[in-house]
Amino acid sequence: MHNNPSATGLSNLSMNPQNMLLSNSNSNHSRSHHYNNIASRPNYNSNSLHSSFKSKSVCQLNCRYCQGILCRRGMKAILLADTRVELYSTDAAPIGVQLVANDYVTRNCLCQIRDVACLGCGNVVGYHVTQPCEVCMSACNNGHFWMFHNDSVKAKERMDSTGQKPLLWAQLSLNNIDSNSYDDENDIICR
After folding, report:
1. How many H helices and E strands in the chain?
2. Which candidate, 13, 56, 91, 160, has a CA 20 to 30 Å from the CA of 176?
3. Rounded distance, CA 30 to CA 19, Å?
4. Residue 80 has pLDDT above 60, yes or no
5. Which stretches does UniProt call biased (Low complexity) (predicted)?
6. Where are the alpha helices (DSSP H) in the chain?
């Protein structure tokens, strides 16, 4: 299994194995608990996305190792805790990943994070912020809690309904959650 030692945190945070500190978070939380926790966070509201993020294009993210679809609502982003690190993020639970291992924190901030692995091949492709810290939540951020390492994904811009222009985040909403699901039943059956 490939474990990427590059970036971590809330879209725009940082993971470096030498900086990781294990938290004493309970690892028996279910995957759905973390999905529901995101929507219930008081500061999370996709409709209040800062205007600078609304003009960004929406990307489909595929696993670099097996080409499986990970997410259809990706955004190019930077880490809050280390603005030199570029990555991709999404606001909705991705379709092609599973939470793995225990929560941990880094020395860069106090966000609790957990690695995510591709369902197709098992490689670690990013992480999920299970509990953001106050510092990161108070900074200008895109509200995304699912991050993908730049070198673990291949991004492709999605096109709008005309097929002529890139689809922009201003054209999406969290209610349009089906844009992060498989296009048809065949995709699921063939996996």
Report:
1. 4, 10
2. 13
3. 26
4. yes
5. 10-29
6. 31-40, 51-54, 134-138, 185-189
Q: Which long-range contacts (CB under 8 A, 24 or more apart) does 53-56 make?
A: 53/142, 53/169, 54/168, 54/169, 54/170, 55/168, 55/169, 55/170, 56/168, 56/169
Residue 124 belongs to some domain of the structure? yes
pLDDT 10s digits, 119-158: 999 999 999 999 999 888 888 877 889 999 999 999 999 9
Phi first, then psi: give them for residue 147, nearest 5 degrees: -120, 145
> Where does residue 2 rank: exposed (0-12), middle (13-18), buried (19+ CB within 10 A)?
middle
For residue 146, list its beta bridge partners: 90, 128
Q: Which domain holds residue 144?
A: 17-46+56-189
Is there a domain that residue 6 lies in? no
Specify the amino acid at residue 31.
R
Residue 49, C-beta contacts closer than 8 angstroms, at least 6 positions apart: 142, 143, 169
| CATH code of residue 140 | 2.170.150.20
- Give the chain's domain count: 1
Question: At which residue do the structure tokens 């280390």 appear?
Answer: 82
Q: Which amino acid is at 64?
A: R
Phi, psi of 36 (to 5 degrees): -65, -35
